[in-house]
Specification:
Elements lengths: L4 H4 L7 H13 L14 H11 L30 E3 L12 H8 L4 E2 L6 E11 L9 E3 L10 E10 L5 E3 L17 H9 L7
Antiparallel strand pairs: 1-6, 2-3, 3-4, 3-5
The structure holds zinc ion.
Zinc ion (ZN) binds next to helix 4.
Length: about 200
């Protein structure tokens, strides 16, 4: 089957899926793989890694972009929204929680980021510079202690996460019988989860 450029472009540059397909497309045109990953700059090595780890959804998009019937908050019954599972529980015996229910259960404060794809925590990182800070460098301070007297705060950054206490994103496998391990979710699955709304609009 001939590989089309549009098939390659279904995936975002920098993902394993893109690098694997892009490499095959290059080879089919008598060229060498040329795409790289953020953590593997060498295109030949990136292609080898991507061929091993790329995940191609059973149809055009992961889970055909749909939400499984049993993907429901076990506390309030919310559906069609992002859900979190318990990191410590066997994948087969998961309880799912929506954002408000998971925050309540775990005693954590979280809000969705503006783009709805991740979460903010209640922590802010503070960065400062002083008269002797080298160009391109900065330091951080603990807000409990405050910055040094000769410091000027130059930047703050609100912490982002996708975790709520012990709960991590629940990304069903396409077979629908279990969930991906936290560190092994393939990019199309991550994309599926990030695209779910954080809250139901009912
Ligand atoms: Zn809920």
């Amino acid at each position: 089957m001939a590989l089309s450029k549009s098939a390659v472009n279904r995936f975002k540059p920098g993902t394993a899926e893109y690098v694997a397909l892009h490499g095959m497309w290059q080879i089919s045109h008598g060229r060498k793989p040329s795409a790289c990953l953020s953590f593997i700059i060498n295109p030949a090595k990136a292609f080898a890694w991507a061929r091993r780890y790329a995940y191609f959804p059973a149809s055009e998009t992961y889970l055909e972009g749909k939400v499984p019937k049993d993907y429901v908050c076990g506390e309030c019954g919310a559906s069609g929204v992002k859900l979190w599972r318990d990191y410590n529980t066997f994948l087969e015996h998961q309880s799912l929680r929506c954002l408000p229910c998971a925050c309540h259960e775990q005693g954590k404060v979280r809000t969705p980021t503006e783009d709805g794809r991740s979460l903010y925590t209640d922590k802010v990182h503070h960065w400062y510079r002083t008269a002797t800070t080298k160009p391109g460098w900065w330091s951080g301070y603990d807000p409990k202690d405050g910055p040094p007297a000769d410091a000027i705060e130059t930047r703050t950054e609100r912490e982002k996460t996708d975790q709520i206490g012990w709960r991590v994103p629940a990304v069903p496998t396409e077979e629908g019988d279990t969930y991906w391990g936290y560190t092994s979710v393939p990019d199309p699955g991550v994309e599926w989860w990030q695209n779910l709304p954080a809250l139901s609009h009912k």
